[in-house]
Write a structure and sequence with these properties.
By secondary structure, the protein is mainly α. The protein has one domain. It has 2 helices and no strands. The mean pLDDT is 89.
Length: 77
């Protein structure tokens, strides 16, 4: 069973107004909107970190391939 925790936030007035309007328009509690926003943000951050990691791994793999290719060329001379 999931447990809920209460948090207190200080946000800009314009953001609060937009959240309040969205809450009423979508008939959702502000806490539900906040939870969805935090979940989306966390997912985006995780995806960005993973993409960066994959890019770094690709660079390392390319460098390793270049070294081994050059070594193989030297052996085959």
């Amino acid at each position: 069973m999931r447990t809920k925790r209460k948090v207190s936030l200080t946000i800009d007035e314009d953001i609060y107004t937009a959240i309040d309007k969205a809450s009423k328009t979508l008939n959702l509690a502000k806490s539900q909107l906040a939870q969805e926003a935090f979940s989306l943000w966390l997912k985006k951050q995780t995806e960005a970190l993973m993409a960066k990691g994959y890019e770094e791994m690709a660079e390392e793999d390319k460098a390793f391939a270049d070294v081994t290719f050059e070594a193989q060329r030297e052996i085959l001379k």
